[in-house]
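Subject: Re: docking follow-up (zinc ion)

Dear J.,

Thanks for your patience while I sorted out the input files. As discussed at Tuesday's group meeting, I've set up the holo structure prediction with zinc ion included as the bound ligand rather than trying to dock it afterwards. The sequence and the ligand SMILES I used are pasted below, so you can double-check that they match what you have on your end before we go further.
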Amino acid sequence: MMCENATKLASDELDRRLSFGESVGLRLHLFKCGACSGFVRHIKVMRQVTRRYVATDASDPNES
Ligand SMILES: [Zn+2]
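The structure tokens for the complex came back this morning:
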């Protein structure tokens, strides 16, 4: 799997359930690719932050 494909699947995974093949391919790629596992950690944190803001309806004080 290419990094481009892995990062796309990782963000897809936040919105939909991956197929078994996609999930395994992604896990394998993340296991050997530090860049993509770092990216996945980042988007998961970003997603949690976004959800929290949506849930509490708070405005972002760091908004540019
Ligand atoms: Zn990668």
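A couple of observations from a first look. The chain has one domain: 3-55. The longest helix spans residues 34-56.

Let me know if you'd like me to rerun anything.

Best regards,
T.
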